[in-house]
Amino acid sequence: xxxxxxxxxxxxxxxxxxxxxxxxxxxxxxxxxxxxxxxxxxxxxxxxxxxxxxxxxxxxxxxxxxxxxxxxxxxxxxxxxxxxxxxxxxxxxxxxxxxxxxxxxxxxxxxxxxxxxxxxxxxxxxxxxxxxxxxxxxxxxxxxxxxxxxxxxxxxxxxxxxxxxxxxxxxxxxxxxxxxxxxxxxxxxxxxxxxxxxxxxxxxxxxxxxxxxxxxxxxxxxxxxxxxxxxxxxxxxxxxxxxxxxxxxxxxxxxxxxxxxxxxxxxxxxxxxxxxxxxxxxxxxxxxxxxxxxx
Length: 295
Ligand SMILES: Nc1ncnc2c1ncn2[C@@H]1O[C@H](COP(=O)(O)OP(=O)(O)OP(=O)(O)O)[C@@H](O)[C@H]1O
What we know:
- By secondary structure, the chain is an alpha/beta fold.
- Helix content is 33%, strand content 30%.
- The site of adenosine-5'-triphosphate has 11 residues, from strand 2 and helix 1.
């Protein structure tokens, strides 16, 4: 299985949401990591044939997905960011209903629904109404519906949005498991969602991939260093304006800062090993002195 994007572009009027992307994906987990508005959903909707590219193509094993029509959709499972569910349906009935919409024969659907409910960890909630599920359980039901046709390509748009840390970990494990024999593409703006499970991470900004590679490759692409130091209140205020600060904590001897800088920011600053979180800040973060600073 090979999914290819060639100069993939989407414009809305004069605005370019996805800008000449090239990527080849095979089996495994691919993570699209970017801030809000980077173009992740637009890209995923094109991969699901819900939006037509303005320019460029997507091919699956060499064939244009728009020309493949139903043959491509048979290979595809999609969990949109806001997936529609029926609040009064039980989990089981909801999945059976979606299976019917997907044209899966009733006998096959019953077997598949049972199997998937257990696989996503909802066996004890099969008879629960969808409206009674927690956010994480709803997302798991969402994954189950995307998996009904046993897709070779699974596309998950922000599957961990709103989940607590426990649910997030369960979800990561599930995604990792599902990727054993398929291609999984997931989007997120949370570094830890993809840090450990993605074979390849694409950092997306303003419709472009600013960098792509394994977590280690991305980290080693960082030319600035990560530094740790303890500063006074006044120094800390100055450093925050000048550098991208990834963490600060008030300690017994002053304010402990972790920051990104080309040069040693203070004489006693110590060099630290960079993490993917530092890298995210390096590409997407703002300094506290900049307009709209997030920190
Ligand atoms: N139908 C549309 N018409 C006009 N602009 C659009 C449309 N859909 C998306 N955009 C714009 O394209 C850009 C990318 O949006 P997109 O939803 O793909 O980003 P995203 O990375 O998925 O962000 P988020 O995490 O907030 O969902 C945004 O600036 C958005 O406002």
